[in-house]
Amino acid sequence: MKRLRTTAVHGGRDDLADLGVHALPIDLSTTYPVPDQAAGGRALQDLAEGAAHAASPVYARLHNPTVARFEQALAALEGTAAAVAFGSGMAAVTAVVQAACALAGKPHVVAVRPLYGGTDHLLSSGLLGVRTTYATADRVADAITPDTGLVVVETPANPNLDLLDVAAVVERAGPVPVVVDNTFATPVLQNPAALGATYVLHSATKYLGGHGDVLGGVVACAEERAAALRQVRIVTGAVLHPLGGYLLHRGLATLPLRVEAAQRTAVELARRLAGHPGVGLVRHPGLPGGDPAGLVGTQMSGPGAVLALTTREDPAAVVARLRLITPAVSLGSVDTLVEHPAALTHRLVPGADREASGVPDSLLRLSAGLEDVEDLWDDLDQALSGGCEGNYIKPSSSRTGELVQTG
Ligand code: MET
């Protein structure tokens, strides 16, 4: 078992030297010549029953070697036997619910808010034929019924950075499988499977890809669970495109470096924001009070690179004044992204439910990128200071040496 940074670079590449190639091969085939019809049929049967691979991939909806390489690498990072990739994070959530609830004949879900708004909406909508009970993390056991197929949690939570104790939730869930959305932490900071989670889910679009140019989802789990997820993926066609598999696999190599650098920036921005007169409260697990249960340093190796804040002024007005930071949903990209959850990512969650789960309408979410922290601070400071530059000497060419007062 190699260390994290080594696994990030070498995972899923064991056979490249034998193939005589250095970069990851991309297989764009939609169909594959079968040796003969009977052998092709056996391969199709194996894959349809959930096998990780077969004598022939048969058809790209059943299996793709480029995507399988990414899955192998991600599983190694999460410490699971297998992983199954999907065309988006929401496709991954859907497949987990279908496998744990529909396939198992248990149509009840227990979920802890807040969750990413899309997940919340999917679970609340009834679209997948499940009914959902929302519970606080300490009341999960009370919410479980004989037909509960799945417990859904996310830590750190999107968008307010609430943390929950995964091992404690797993214990309260008893025999019911628990899915942990690990998108914010990434395998660099947290391995929920080691804490007993059945499924570890990522919107791969975020940190795993890391450059804002690939949409995907992935679930790390035991082989038996992966087989059911593959069955669902084949039947529903929720596949990841091989070019996406390639980009996500390439992204893994720099994942530890990107997460560590962005995290350092988030820690510094959170500290400065907490003292800014234009800011109400700041949520980040690295701040005093941001981790009441003491999970950073135990469950998580670091506080992560996403933070949230409330502003004294209309949050939309503050965002509109930003010049460097990108006003966009998503997170985990090389550039710093900011968005207003009540307007965007969590728009489909009823306002009262958002408020009750610690997501006020005034909250902004910020995902630290890889820019120089001083440039990010300059941008935030001027936006939070009503468009006037803050109380600092801004060392730009147009304002060299000029002390600009807060408006
Ligand atoms: C369309 S909302 C964007 C999705 C993404 N999961 C986010 O939290 O930013």
Automatic annotation (TrEMBL):
InterPro entries registered for this protein in UniProt: Cys/Met-Metab_PyrdxlP-dep_enz, PyrdxlP-dep_Trfase, PyrdxlP-dep_Trfase_major, PyrdxlP-dep_Trfase_small
Record keywords, A-Z: Pyridoxal phosphate
Transmembrane segment boundaries: none
Swiss-Prot/TrEMBL cofactor(s): pyridoxal 5'-phosphate
Family of the protein in this entry: Belongs to the trans-sulfuration enzymes family.
Protein name: Trans-sulfuration enzyme family protein
Organism: Saccharothrix xinjiangensis
